Amino acid sequence: MIPIAPQVEGPVVAARDMQHYLRPGTLSLGALPPLALYVHLPWCLKKCPYCDFNSHELQRGSSGAAVLDEALQQRYIDALMADLEAALPLVWGRRVHSVFIGGGTPSLFTPERIDTLIAGLRARLPLEAGAEITLEANPGTFERERFRAYRAAGVTRLSIGVQSFDDTALQRIGRVHDAAMARAAVEEAREAFETFNLDLMYALPGQTLAQLAQELDTALGYAPPHLSIYHLTVEPNTAFANRPPEHLPDDDLASDMLDLITERTAAVGLERYEVSAFAKNGHRCAHNLNYWQFGDYLGIGAGAHGKLSFPHRVLRQVRWREPQLYMQHALAGRAVSNEHEVARRDLPFEFMMNALRLREGFELARYTERTGLPLSSISSALQQAQDRGLLEPVPTADAPTGAPALAAAMRPTARGFDFLSDLQALFLAEPVRGG
After folding, report:
1. DSSP of 105-140
2. Are the CB atoms for 35 and 306 separated by under 8 Å?
3. Residue 397 pLDDT
């Protein structure tokens, strides 16, 4: 999931008639983008000190074990179904291209409950044939045969939050699993799924370039069809923000680490198609691609974000954040805590914040299709980006050799990819002056 704005718990959003969203406006979208579904399962065994997602640590029972009670699992799924049913008028008639079950730690839910969840989604939404259904899983919740049971329940793609294969590194970043659990989980995933993803973090406390090389040796030794890499950063409102870890690699070392990752992944046929994502041919994450191409996604579950397009507006929604409060409101048909239309002046940045993460860039026609805005709304920023060497036209396949590039699409240059925040910032709206 890609968070867009922080949630502020407030008054319950009143239910609105569909005509409210279809009324005339300043935008004109010729066609609606593809639609995906995000489902948030918010509980974790333990809150990681670097995590700023909406995840909630399980309470421990009298035995000292943290277990997600079956009755609570079912109540939460009931709330998800009520949430979805209330949202159906907003997406009526639209087919869902992908489903992502994220968290939290969704693999805390039993395969039986995941089966119930997916069956409920299929009963209420028209899923495309062969739609990608991804489940996030952590090695700390791994049990033999569990991944196969998720596959039998309808999950087609597993994303495993390994983060590291080194016990010391795992302890330093507060993970609940150890290296042996990580290896066992990956081995099981390889046997159960044709496509799966490994999450790996770098620039960890005290990590050296040689240690990262060892991590890559282990990770790439499993021949993952997809690898996601994340630079450890200290985010506000996390345990690390209050007590930062010692011996974090400096910017130069972190840059060398990213260079090493890029070099090693390319050598084994993993293409860097997005800033933090590497995949073999045919194994890109369809759900995340939809985010990056400014597609639509309905988000259900505690704290879930959503983006939905209508002929004359783009809407963002957020669900109630705290799980118990979410279930209470969702079961009453009021899961949305707040929503807003994306202002016309903010759409260029929102589109570019996503599209420029892709190595291949974006088609100019897609910008007008997904925002309802003319190319003139970004022409100045596009020119500035090219003048600064951050953006370049993508030549058409049939352009004659030596002919000027035809600007049907744009992509970040190598420099633009390295300085992505600077490139994205060129598309920020000018601040409103006065009042």
Report:
1. -GGGS-HHHHHHHHHHHHHHS-EEEEEEEEEEE-GG
2. no
3. 62
Q: Give the Cα separation of 84 and 87 in Å (integer).
A: 5
Sheet with 362-363, edge to edge strand ranges: 362-363, 409-412, 391-393
CA angle 332, 113, 38 (to 5 degrees): 65
Return d(Cα 264, Cα 277) in angstroms, integer: 13
In angstroms, the Cα distances linking 113 to 74, 172, 193, 270, 404 are: 7, 33, 19, 34, 57
Cis previous bond, 140, omega within 30 = no
Terminal Cα distance for the chain, rounded: 35
Q: What are the phi and psi torsion angles at 310 (to 5°)?
A: -130, 170
Rg for the chain (alpha carbons), in Å? Answer: 22
- Give tens-digit pLDDT for 84-99: 999 999 999 999 999 9
Q: Shortest CA distance to 198 belongs to which of 271, 278, 275, 287?
A: 278
Give per-residue pLDDT as tens, 121-156. 999 999 999 999 999 999 987 677 899 999 999 999
Residue 403's φ and ψ, nearest 5 degrees, are -80, 155
Structure tokens at 66: 């943290």
Residue 336 burial (CB count, 10 A): 24
Q: DSSP secondary-structure letter at 257?
A: H
- pLDDT at res. 17: 77
Assign 419 to helix, strand or coil: coil
Per DSSP, what are the bridge partners of residue 196?
A: 158
How many distinct helices (H) and strands (E) make up the chain?
A: 16, 17
